[in-house]
Write a structure and sequence with these properties.
Helix 1 packs parallel to helix 2 and helix 1 runs parallel beside helix 5. With about 150 residues, this protein is an alpha/beta fold. Helix content is about 35%, strand content about 20%. The longest helix has 19 residues. It has a single domain, classed as SPOUT methyltransferase, trefoil knot domain (Alpha/beta knot).
Length: about 150
């Protein structure tokens, strides 16, 4: 399982997601450019010492990231509030890459339209979105639950 952040803007969220990935044994992909300097103190504070054990891969652009996913024959799964499929109605696989958009804008429309799997978290009417770290944790939790059941654990 992999987590990918498309041009993250908030270092605290990225640090928190690094920590999640380290604790869950998930690879983290950062698709640049970031909206902050990678050595930001807020990133370090949120990621704590887990930053040193997290497996983080940096991609210089969306195109280089896509090429890597294609080479590895991985499924790309976008988490987006506009998606129709609920994440709880989706069957996850071990090599899946969960893609999260920018905190302020999600992903560009062309990425939304061309990503084959798009999932959303159901929310109370009138609510727009969850914090990207919370959303990732919810979906990662469900994916790992499904994978453990599939492995007979």
């Amino acid at each position: 399982m992999h987590l990918a952040l498309y041009q993250p803007e908030i270092p605290q969220n990225t640090g928190t997601l690094m920590r999640l990935c380290a604790c869950m044994g998930i690879n983290l992909n950062i698709i640049h450019p970031c909206g902050f300097v990678w050595e930001d103190r807020h990133l370090r504070r949120a990621g704590m010492d887990y930053m040193d054990i997290a497996t983080v891969h940096h991609h210089t652009s969306w195109e280089t990231f896509q090429e890597e996913v294609r080479k590895k024959s991985q499924r790309l799964i976008l988490l987006d509030a506009k998606a129709e499929t609920l994440y709880t109605n989706f069957s996850f696989q071990s090599g899946d890459v969960l893609l999260l958009g920018q905190e302020s804008a999600g992903v560009p429309e062309d990425i939304f339209q061309t990503t084959p799997h798009r999932l959303r978290i159901p929310m109370t009417p009138g609510c727009r979105s969850l914090n990207v770290s919370l959303a990732a944790a919810m979906v990662v939790g469900e994916a790992l639950r499904q994978l453990k059941i599939a492995q007979g654990e």
